[in-house]
Amino acid sequence: QQRDKLKQYQKRISLNLERERALARQLLKEGKKEKAMLLLKKKRYQEQLLDKTENQISNLERMVQDIEFTQIEMKVIEGLKVGNECLNKMHQVMSIEEVERIIGETQDAVEYQRQIDELLAGSLTEEDEDAILEELNAITQEQVELPEVPSEPLPEKIPEASPVKNRPKPELVAAS
User: Region Disordered: what ranges (predicted)?
Assistant: First the structure.
């Protein structure tokens, strides 16, 4: 509000300065030099007032900015205060000893589960693993003996037997 009042005051002074300058010219034209000097002194004084009001407006604007910034700082500080209180409450609920205990229990549970998994999966010892590898090597190195293939050509027709009871059934002959 003060800033606005000072700006209105500046406008009035500026208008007065213009009027007095015009009046001083007119007085000089009329030959009234002393009255013109008096008006110019008054004008000079008003210009100094104008400069002072400009400084005051500047000071007021700076103060307004400082106040606004301080309000922002207060909100930040209030937020920090609330956050700090929250952290303190959380620290009361969870102590370092409690966290270390929970981490230790978790590690123990993971180790216990690993042991159970090993038992259920029937995991082998290193000796068992070595024995299995030796057996695998022995099997792969063995020579597998295959039966010999006959060198004589196979007969094209199967000789038929004369008695009926030794005669193969037609469906078996067709299948072979």
Answer: 143-176
